[in-house]
Each structure stands twice: as structure tokens, then as C-alpha cells.
Design brief:
Elements lengths: L5 E16 L10 E4 L4 H4 L16 E4 L8 H14 L4 E10 L2 E10 L5 H10 L13 E17 L2 E4 L5 E5 L6 H13 L7 E8 L4 E8 L5 H17 L1
Antiparallel strand pairs: 1-2, 1-6, 1-9, 2-3, 3-5, 4-5, 4-6, 6-7, 7-8, 8-10, 9-10
Length: 241
């Protein structure tokens, strides 16, 4: 059996999703937003989950008071410290979102049970994190950049599988695009595909020569031939530009 080729790196995912103040029985003093539109190209436009098992848990964003109030290495260290102290299962990463017409730093939290969120927030406060005060914010579209550690399996040239997140793949592309251009390109490609049940976002990882630009695909089809075709279409669109 051929040995799997694995790529480990850090980078980010850039996506556009719908956010709003978290609807919760708990009265938060902090500004906590929930993701109402996770994987919009898959769930919202074409696919209705048949049962609870098919629904993806939503991400939570706890907004920090200042954009530069937490450095990435310090945040990782305090998160490791909190995980040793508490019994709550969670994943956390720094994320930048657009709010009040400006970029805002936040902690993106993913939990199996969000009843533990107040306790988790208290741990970060004890570590010196200052959060933005609660506001009632109606649903709005925001670009979100999430810092991420990538562990990818190479499936084919320029095609990768995310080993941490199910049904998630990455297609190598020649360059970075402005989001509006990327979004328009994705709509054009989708309209010319027979299979439309997938979500697309931008991503990038750091390599020794520089930055490797990617398209993140969420797709339950799990079909390598489809991913190859989609990769060809994206590269063709880049070449056309």
C-alpha cells in the first residue's frame, strides 16, 4: 500500500456567513455571535437536512474589545492552559470578522454542548481577555477569517483532504482573489455544474517558498473525480482572468 502524503501547516480560511447575537437562555454580558449560515452553499440553497444527525453544529464568536488585544501565540498558550484546567470539551481559534463597518477580533468557539460557554468565557477573562459588551445585533453577512492548523492528505495533484474536518477538501489555485471576484467566479462555476451541493470558501497555508492559495470545498459527495473536475474549472477561470 502506498504511504499517504500528509501536509501539516498553519494558515486561514476566509468565508462569508450570516451572524447574529446568540439566542440563549443565558444572559451574556459579552457580545456573543452565532453562525446562522454555516456552509451556505450546501445547506441553505440546495439541501435540507433530513434529520438531526445531518445538521452541522454552529460556531460561536465571542468578540474581543480591541483588534490587537490578543496575539496568536499568547492565545494558543492560554487555550492550552484552560483545557488543562477545565473539563469542558471545546475547540477555539482566533477569527477576524466585519462588524460595525470595521474588522473585529473574536474567539471562534466550537463545542458539543454550549451550556458550558459561560464557564469557558470566565476562564478566558481570568487570563486577561477583555470582551466587547453585549449588543442585540440582527442577522448580517460578514466576511470571517479564521486562523487554522491544517492536517491535509494529498489525494491528487493540487487536491487535499482535511483530516480534522469531515467532508472538507482543498483545491490549489494560482493566486489570491478579492472576495467579490471569488464569489462571482464560484457562482459561475456552480451554474455550469450538474452537482451543486457544495460550499466554497477561500483558504491559504504557509509553505517554505511562500503562501499556497486554496479553495476550501465542503461536499458530502466525497467524489475525487468531481473534485478533479471542480479544480479544473477553477484553474480555467483563474487563467481567463
Amino acid at each position: 500500500m502506498d504511504k499517504k502524503l500528509i501536509v501539516n501547516s498553519i494558515g486561514y480560511v476566509l468565508k462569508k456567513e450570516k451572524l447574529a447575537t446568540l439566542a440563549s437562555q443565558h444572559s451574556f454580558h459579552e457580545l456573543v455571535l452565532e453562525d446562522l449560515d454555516q456552509f451556505p452553499g450546501f445547506y441553505d440553497h440546495y439541501f435540507i437536512p433530513a434529520n438531526e444527525g445531518e445538521k452541522q453544529p454552529r460556531s460561536i464568536f465571542i468578540v474581543l474589545r480591541e483588534l490587537e488585544s490578543c496575539k496568536e501565540d499568547a492565545f494558543i498558550r492560554m487555550t492550552m492552559k484552560i483545557k488543562k484546567k477545565c473539563s469542558i470539551y471545546f475547540n477555539a481559534a482566533l477569527a477576524t470578522l466585519q462588524l460595525f463597518n470595521k474588522p473585529m477580533l473574536s474567539i471562534r468557539v466550537f463545542m458539543d454542548d454550549y451550556d458550558g460557554l459561560p464557564e469557558l468565557i470566565s476562564y478566558y477573562k481570568k487570563e486577561g481577555i477583555s470582551f466587547h459588551s453585549r449588543k442585540d445585533i440582527k442577522p448580517f453577512q460578514s466576511l470571517i477569517e479564521i486562523r487554522k492548523y491544517f492536517e491535509l492528505e494529498v489525494l491528487d495533484k493540487g487536491i487535499y483532504k482535511d483530516l480534522d474536518q469531515a467532508d472538507t477538501y482543498y483545491l490549489q489555485v494560482p493566486a489570491y482573489l478579492n472576495w467579490d471576484i471569488f464569489e462571482s467566479m464560484t457562482i459561475t462555476i456552480r451554474n455550469n455544474m450538474s452537482h451543486k451541493l457544495y460550499d466554497a470558501a477561500q483558504a491559504a497555508i504557509y509553505e517554505k517558498p511562500g503562501i499556497l492559495d486554496l479553495v476550501r470545498i465542503y461536499d458530502k459527495k466525497n467524489d475525487l473525480e468531481f473534485l478533479k473536475l471542480l479544480s479544473q474549472k477553477y484553474i480555467r477561470e483563474f487563467e481567463r482572468l
